[in-house]
Amino acid sequence: MRLKRFLIRYYPPGIILEYEKGGHLRTKSIDLLDLTPETNPDELVVDIMHSEPLITEARAEQVKQLILRLQQKQGQEVHHRFCFCKELKAHILPLTNVAFDKSGSRFITGSYDRTCRIWDTASGTELRVLEGHKNVVYAIAFNNPYGDKIATGSFDKTCKLWCADTGRCFHTFRGHMAEIVCLAFNPQSTLVATGSMDSTAKLWDVESGREVVTLSGHTAEVLSLCFNTVGDQLVTGSFDHTVAIWDVATGRLVHTLIGHMGEICNVQFNWDSSLILTGSIDKSGKLWDAASGKCVVTLVGHKEDVLDVCFDLSGQLIATASADGTAKVFSVATHQCLVTLVGHDGEISKICFSPQGTRVLTASSDKTARLWDAKSGACLRVLEGHTDEIFSCVFNYEGDTIITGSKDNTCRIWY
Amino acid sequence: MIFFNYFFFYYYFFLQGLLSILRKLKSTPDQEVRILLLGLDNGGKTTLLKQLASEDISHITPTQGFNIKSVQSQGFKLNVWDIGGQRKIRPYWRNYFENTDVLIYVIDSADRKRFEETGQELAELLDEEKLSGVPVLIFANKQDLLTAAPASEIAEGLNLHTIRDRMWQIQSCSALTGEGIQEGMNWVCKSVNAKKK
């Protein structure tokens, strides 16, 4: 094994090692999820040298410089106030979802008008229209970090795979018996997972376009799914009140997570894939141990349905959004509710953290999106302008641009 | 302001967010009914929907997409999908055809110039495979206007008597005052009962 070079990853903080083994170039990552500007870099380098044989004494200074760079990035004040906004009359029917590519230079929108559109973020111009679905385009995704392919899941029961540059349709995945409502690429971009109202999830081969396996076991609609960071496990959430962990290689059901008393709205792995977060209309969120399938803690406090949940990228914080119009931020370590975000006049249907984990973004039926300080819970900005409820909101990787998609047929870029 | 007491109907909840839409899409248990509300633009679909939910009808703008509301009636939960009627949106009506239990078609009885257009759209809907056998209620709306054509004239003009493949009913109403709506919804519940038997 010979170390070739270092790559730096800002969000979540980490150092990627590129090394040679048996003539092949490989990479592995050292996750520094606990890194803060206060961390002592010298002690951290010693820790890393203990656990990582590729890092020798000779490399210590280089690693320290990388850590200092990461800390410098963390220490930067976030000045973006998202005062400027551009409205794009994107579709002739309401939008469903929005998604960025990794660099944030392009984003995609899905709509009830059966199209998915690719946009240039800086200019707000439309780059491509992906046409071909016979019904609502509901779930959309870039194959990040590569960003050269797009997958679209539709109420027409098919999923399509597109070239992000030319707009050519590579494959149409047929086999689901009902609407496709969620999808995801695996981290290697070799598989697409789709979840459907037909109670199954399916894995599809990106290269050949063939179905790899059907994940059956749920007794009701599969509403959300998420690959873990390595890509060897998939978690699915269903209207049957359960959550399932699947082994991607074999399609075998590993664990069924039983405990929620209502339909599951969202499921997510944390970065190191040790925990799974779920939200349910039973007014609670739950944290599960991915290895044992046991519930670690139930996150309570909301007065109405929990409609969305998410981890921050480093997996230290959890946010929950509810139909009661509030959102909450919890600590993963202590399970304590740190702050409650109060201000929206309607239910909150989407929530996400900024890549840095310092801001929370919420989208509401009150036609606004709001930006909050994750620590103090203060509302930093009300993103006003949409004339109907907002269905989706998302940050780019740098955390300096926001896209919101609304039932008013438009999307807005805030920067 | 005319006050109308719908003792059968009460506001259930206004659906919001994508999750709620999916919850309405899913295979519904027996007591849930999926109703599609269609018709030309400016026919009064959204006003009708808001009347059903006992909501304020003073500020209604052309529907650029859709509205969904759930209303409780006679032991049923009626999930009503109100889809915009402008010409450019009509091709997308078919997005919503699947799993429809009852079709409600709304006609502006005072807009005689568009009777032919509305008749054509209705005929096309009745030809749709995914709507085959689905009971259809036609609301001859805007009867509060003096120039409104009576329901009997509209029925004749649309050749409704030639419909043989499904249950149908025409009901004169005013979405503005609420008159006639309840009678129509009673028929909806009756036809759902008849179909389920």
Automatic annotation (TrEMBL), chain A:
GO terms for biological process: axonemal dynein complex assembly; mRNA splicing, via spliceosome. One of its GO terms (molecular function) is U4 snRNA binding. Its main location: cytoplasm. It is found in: Cytoplasm, Cytoskeleton, Flagellum axoneme; Cytoplasm, Cytoskeleton, Flagellum basal body. WD repeats lie at residues 88-129, 130-172, 173-214, 215-256, 257-298, 299-340, 341-382, 383-415. Keywords: Cell projection, Cilium, Cytoplasm, Cytoskeleton, Flagellum, Repeat, WD repeat. This is Dynein assembly factor with WD repeat domains 1. It comes from the Eukaryota. InterPro entries: WD40/YVTN_repeat-like_dom_sf, WD40_PAC1, WD40_repeat_CS, WD40_repeat_dom_sf, WD40_rpt. Gene3D superfamilies: YVTN repeat-like/Quinoprotein amine dehydrogenase (2.130.10.10). The keyword RNA-binding does not apply. GO terms for cellular component: U4/U6 x U5 tri-snRNP complex. It comes from Gouania willdenowi (Blunt-snouted clingfish).
From TrEMBL, chain B:
It comes from the Eukaryota. Pfam families: Arf (PF00025). Gene3D superfamilies: P-loop containing nucleotide triphosphate hydrolases. One of its GO terms (cellular component) is Golgi membrane. It is found in: Cytoplasm, Cytoskeleton, Microtubule organizing center, Centrosome; Golgi apparatus membrane. GO terms for biological process: protein transport. CDD domains: Arl3. It is a peripheral membrane protein. The keyword Transport applies. InterPro entries: ARL2/3, P-loop_NTPase, Small_GTP-bd, Small_GTPase_ARF/SAR. GO terms for molecular function: GTP binding; GTPase activity; metal ion binding. GTP binds at residues 39-46, 85, 141-144. Mg(2+) binds at residues 46, 63. Keywords: Golgi apparatus, GTP-binding, Lipoprotein, Magnesium, Metal-binding, Myristate, Nucleotide-binding, Protein transport, Transport. Belongs to the small GTPase superfamily. Arf family. This is ADP-ribosylation factor-like protein 3. The gene is arl3b.
